[in-house]
Amino acid sequence: MQMTPQMALPQISVLNIMSYSNQDSKIGGQAWRCWRRRILGSRHRRKESLHQHSQFRNKNFTLKPSAKNTTAGGWVAMDARSGRILWSTADPSNATASGPVSVANGVLFA
Q1: pTM of the prediction?
Q2: Burial of 66 per CB tally in 10 Å (0-12, 13-18, 19+)
Q3: pLDDT on residue 110
Q4: Is 25 in contact with 57 (CB distance < 8 Å)?
Q5: Residue 5 placed within a domain
Q6: Residue 10 falls within a domain, yes or no?
Q7: CA angle (3 as vertex; 19, 47 as ends), nearest 5
Q8: How far apart are CA 49 and CA 109, in angstroms?
Q9: Measuring CA to CA, which residue among 18, 50, 52 is closest to residue 34?
Q10: Which among 98, 96, 97, 76 has a CA at the least distance from the CA of 87?
């Protein structure tokens, strides 16, 4: 996949990268509890957590902080303490976003 400017990360100091599948197009239930245990329960408090958002059911997913919707997969950055979505972007190919994400030199690779 070709990288786009929308995929560039804001400057941040600490990252925690994890991958999860969210079939209900929202963070909740077991996925949320697991995320809070892994991130908030860890010794080191993370500032930001990056996630891929797999869209297997093609439901509407609102890209925060905008009000745009997508039915494709995408990537989400969350505040590790509050769980608030900092930013999100849709997969530019309108496909599912399966697989883990990684960061190098301030660029998100998915």
Answers
A1: 0.47
A2: exposed
A3: 58
A4: yes
A5: no
A6: no
A7: 45
A8: 14
A9: 18
A10: 76
CA 110/CA 96 separation, integer angstroms: 11
The one-letter amino acid at 81? R
Longest dimension (CA), the chain: 37
Kindly state whether residue 60 falls inside one of the protein's structural domains: yes
List residues bridging with 70 in a β-sheet. Answer: 61
The residue range of the domain holding 27 is 15-104
Question: How, if at all, do strands 85-90 and 74-79 pair?
Answer: antiparallel
pLDDT in tens, the chain (110 residues): 444 444 444 433 333 344 333 443 344 434 443 444 444 444 444 566 665 555 566 777 777 788 888 877 777 777 767 777 788 878 777 777 666 666 667 666 65
C-alpha 92/C-alpha 4 separation (Å) is 8
pLDDT at 27: 45
